[in-house]
Design brief:
The structure is a single chain. Strand 4 and strand 5 form a beta hairpin. The protein is of the alpha/beta class and 225 residues long. It starts with a strand and ends with a helix. The strands form 2 sheets. The chain has a 6-stranded parallel sheet with strand order 3-2-1-7-8-9, sandwiched between helices. Strands 5-4-6 form a 3-stranded antiparallel sheet. It is globular, with a radius of gyration of 18 Å. It is built from 10 helices and 9 strands. Keywords: Acyltransferase, Cytoplasm, Metal-binding, NAD, Transferase, Zinc.
Length: 225
């Protein structure tokens, strides 16, 4: 079976990583305009680097949970395309290969001047020179608001060729990911949502499974066989 899975912040929340929209989430202490836009980076790169250094540290300390591990096992038994909105590497550390990070990754650094990419150190600062052009234009390789997500052509192709699409731990508020279920459903793909509560686009799914990802994801995957 060809399966396309989209994961969001909810799958990593059980590993201790803060989500953005929870009452105690990341946006409670930081304005999105300040730390997750090109304009915010241009205005105060030191603040942006501190924010992502904190997230990189927290992600490095977190451990994959049962949901991450179950998806790695799913890939060994089915033709899986795993797409994530998350910028942590918990899927990879759980054993998943070829994860599509549509919003970039904390483990990557990007030169805003020449576009060169390289592995990010744990701590980054505005004065870090690009290894390729030596300009101090280093930024996290993260897709910020107002920027185009990565690998969209691959993702649309995977959605259209899938037999099953699942969204796990997503809010349904952020596009284009919020439109994936509608796009897949129009092409006859079965769509299922696994979430703590119905997402903003819950009506786009044929079926909804409610509960923590560490329980619902392994149970759902076991039932596929």
């Amino acid at each position: 079976m060809r399966i396309t899975v989209l994961t969001g912040a909810g799958i990593s929340a059980e590993s201790g990583l803060a989500t953005f929209r929870a009452t105690d989430g990341l946006w409670e202490s930081h304005r999105v305009e300040d730390v997750a836009t090109p304009e915010g980076f241009a205005a105060d790169p030191a603040l942006v680097h501190r924010f992502y250094n904190m997230r990189r540290r927290d992600a490095a300390a977190a451990q994959p949970n049962a949901a991450h591990r179950a998806l790695a096992d799913l890939a060994r038994r089915h033709d899986l395309t795993l797409v994530t909105q998350n910028v942590d590497d918990l899927h990879e550390r759980a054993g998943s290969a070829h994860v599509i990070h549509m919003h970039g990754a904390l483990t990557g650094a990007l030169c805003a001047a020449c576009g060169h990419r390289w592995p990010a150190p744990l701590v980054m600062s505005p004065g870090d020179p690009c290894p390729a052009c030596a300009r101090p234009a280093t930024r996290p390789d993260i897709v910020w608001f107002g920027e185009m997500p990565y690998y969209m052509e691959r993702i649309w192709d995977a959605l259209e060729s899938a037999d099953l699409f699942a969204a796990i731990g997503t809010s349904g508020n952020v596009y284009p990911a919020a439109g994936f279920a509608q796009h897949a459903r129009r092409r006859g793909v079965e769509c299922v949502e696994l979430n703590l509560e119905p997402s903003a686009n819950a009506r786009d799914f044929h079926r909804r499974i409610t509960g923590p990802a560490s329980r619902t994801v392994p149970d759902w995957i076991a039932a596929l066989d």
